Amino acid sequence: MKLLSVRFAALRGTLLVTALYTATLLLTAPTAALAESMHDMHDMQGMQDMPGMNTPAAQPADVITATGVVKNWGAEKVSIAHQAIPQLNWPPMTMQFSLQGYQGQAFAPGQHITFAFKQVTTGYQLVSASTN
Ligand SMILES: [Cu+2]
């Protein structure tokens, strides 16, 4: 019996360690996974495929200000390599903004701009832009 109870105690110890390890994984993994999935969602294609999955930090109508470098300025959309946007928990990246409704001037590739944009159901719209 003594041997059995020792083995049982050892088994319980293993289970406890396993449980603690699992709990640690559960506590840490979702944070990393969430950050990763938010990064993925920031990809334009991903966002347009999942219009309901808005960034929780901002309401759809919020106008966000950021800085970046113009990569391409087209007739309907502009590509901007923007700096990190802590307000949205976004890392620096290049992304496209719709020019629908934009009334301001156009900028050339390479120009550093401060710009404002808002989220719409189809993606992100440029609201205003100016040189830094
Ligand atoms: Cu972006």
UniProtKB/TrEMBL annotation:
<dbReference type="InterPro" id="IPR021647">
    <property type="entry name" value="CusF_Ec"/>
</dbReference>
<feature type="signal peptide">
    <location>
        <begin position="1"/>
        <end position="35"/>
    </location>
</feature>
<dbReference type="Pfam" id="PF11604">
    <property type="entry name" value="CusF_Ec"/>
</dbReference>
<dbReference type="InterPro" id="IPR042230">
    <property type="entry name" value="CusF_sf"/>
</dbReference>
<protein>
    <submittedName>
        <fullName>Cu(I)/Ag(I) efflux system protein CusF</fullName>
    </submittedName>
</protein>
<keyword id="KW-0732">Signal</keyword>
